[in-house]
Design a protein that fits this description.
three-stranded antiparallel sheet, mainly beta, about 575 residues
Length: about 575
């Protein structure tokens, strides 16, 4: 259901107020990370009980500030190659890219507002906001940090996180998070605690949106704490940890999710590069929502558009209810300072769980990171967790036609970054269990820079078993996404960028046709007038296929940007 610009501005104002006035951190999934215990050498092992240093504390800071606002005008031609229309747009954009870094504060942001004006009257004008921001501040150095972040992104709806063109209807997603992190010592023990609050709002303009799960907005909370001592004083290290997560959706069915866990872990070094780890604990996860309003014959009452109506007067329906013992065991392997593997397997969420991470730096300029994950979360918590894990030094490649953020954000360190498609492929209001894997590789050499990321996710949604709820969407879905970018500096004032993507999405919904998308874009830019004026040219080709629906779209752009 589309909303007015004023409604969107009110949402953003509310979200900004929450982010600034609260104090907060990642999101709402109740996944638990293993204790950060070093096992690569005896000294590192003895220091493992230290509070884990933040990504900023590991890097010396020098004060600098760079804020570059800009205005841009461009002409866009988009053509449907298999018998469709040709549209011409004038694109007007205003944005800012900035970075502020001091001894105690690191902030980076990229924001862009774009309006596409269609010439012929056959296509709709579009207004889009897109951006990414992250802030880290040492409030009390060595003791208290504050983090905040924001995301504004655009997708093409279910299964279309990548490859949105100017002619597509879209789903606009806005998110903010903020919160403090405490890290200190109590004698030989390290004490860590964090709280995060996040807000997510969705504006869905895609056709037939009424027949899908309607996501309005949500507020998510996440609180975690741990205390532990690393190996050294004892042959093993230990950690006691606990966490609480809650998410409240603002939609008509008032979906709520709550989760709490407590657990203990030990880490036993068995060699200079290898340690064994095991943990056991208890968790309680619960989700519920309003029932559908029903008539005298107990049949669902629908709007004229076929949308079910919520009935707050009926007892709430339990959609997820798991509590009991959780346990896992695994290893931590660090054969070199540049390589780390962590793997764990056990029981959680009522079944087997497998987790793992791998990081390797080939040299100073190339790196790779991979992860296997298993978590119970909501759409809102997934988005907020993504933003909170964003490196503070990041690079993004925008789509030149829509201004939207590309599939991944790559960090300044090789192998650092994250991809957004795993969270954006499916916008649903119910909680779900997500299992999958991600891999990201990035680096640079001389005049070249590159980055690539891939992800696979299988989601199982928690919803009432009543067939009346089938209208809200599938019970399970899965997606695969691949995004890559390659840049080349042609001279001091010109550069060329290629980016490409491929994605696949499918679900068990009756009659649903899987969605496959693939596309590529080439962008050339040349800076003039002391780098203030920039000439931009771009070509793009995008293909989307879903059953009998097949679309091939070609885009072309020529534009000018002035940077102040």
């Amino acid at each position: 259901m589309a909303r007015t610009s004023l409604s969107i501005l009110r949402r953003l104002a509310l979200a900004f107020g929450l982010a600034v006035a609260a104090t907060t951190a990642p999101a709402q999934g109740v996944s638990y990370d293993p204790p950060p215990v070093q096992a690569s050498d005896p000294q590192a092992a003895s220091d493992a009980g230290e509070a884990a240093p933040s990504r900023e504390r590991q890097r010396p800071r020098r004060s600098r500030a760079e804020v570059r606002p800009y205005l841009e005008v461009a002409q866009i031609v988009t053509a449907e190659l298999n018998g469709g229309d040709v549209f011409t747009y004038t694109s007007l954009a205003a944005g800012v890219d900035g970075r502020i870094e001091t001894r105690r504060v690191h902030a980076q942001a990229s924001y862009r507002y774009q309006r596409n004006i269609e010439w012929g009257g056959n296509g709709a004008d579009q207004d889009t906001h897109s951006g990414l921001a992250i802030v880290n501040a040492d409030i009390v150095p060595g003791l208290l940090q504050f983090d905040a972040g924001a995301l504004a992104a655009r997708t093409g709806g279910i299964g279309r996180a990548l490859g949105v063109t100017p002619r597509d209807s879209s789903v606009e997603i806005y998110s903010l998070f903020a919160g403090p992190t405490l890290s200190t010592r109590i004698g030989p023990a390290a004490l860590n605690a964090a709280y995060r609050i996040g807000y997510v709002a969705v504006d869905d303009d895609t056709p037939f949106g009424a027949f899908r799960d309607q996501y309005d907005d949500a507020i998510a909370h996440n609180l975690s704490a741990s205390i532990g001592i690393g190996p050294g004083r004892l042959p093993f290290g230990w950690t006691l940890a606990g966490g609480y997560a809650r998410s409240d959706n603002g939609g008509p069915f008032d979906q709520r999710f709550e989760g709490v866990y407590v657990r203990g872990d030990i880490v036993l070094p068995v060699g200079p590069t290898l340690a064994l780890t095991a943990g056991v604990g208890y968790e309680d996860l619960r989700a519920d929502q309003f029932d559908i309003a029903r008539d005298a014959d107990d049949l669902p009452i629908l709007t004229p558009d076929g949308v079910p109506i919520a009935d707050p007067s009926r007892p709430r329906l339990l959609t997820y209810d798991i509590d009991g013992l959780i346990y896992d065991a695994g290893l931590i392997w660090r054969p070199t300072p540049r390589t780390e593997l962590q793997a764990r397997a056990g029981r959680r969420y009522g079944g087997t769980t497998i987790l793992g991470t791998f990081q390797h730096r080939f040299n100073r300029t190339y790196g790779v990171a991979a992860a296997v994950f298993d978590t119970v979360e909501t759409f809102g918590s997934s988005i907020i967790n993504n933003i909170s894990n964003l490196p503070t030094d990041f690079d993004i490649v925008r789509n030149p036609f829509t201004g939207n953020i590309g599939g991944c954000a790559f960090g300044a360190d090789p192998g650092a970054g994250l991809c957004f498609d795993q969270s954006l492929q499916s916008v649903r209001s119910t909680s779900f269990r997500a299992r999958g894997a991600t891999i990201l590789v990035s680096g640079n050499r001389g005049l070249w820079s590159f980055g690539a990321g891939a992800s696979y996710v299988h989601r199982r949604y928690a919803r009432p078993s009543d067939p009346a709820f089938d209208i809200f969407g599938a019970v399970t879905d899965e997606s695969f996404g691949l995004y890559a970018t390659l840049g080349r500096e042609l001279s001091r004032t010109s550069d060329l960028t290629f980016d490409a993507y491929a994605s696949w999405f499918d679900s068990d919904l009756a009659g649903f046709e899987g969605i496959f998308s693939i596309g590529a874009t080439a962008t050339y830019s040349r800076r003039l007038l002391y780098d203030r004026l920039q000439l931009i040219g771009a070509l793009g080709l995008y293909h989307t296929s879903s059953g009998a629906n097949d679309s091939i779209v070609a885009n072309g752009l020529i534009g000018l940007r002035y940077t102040f």
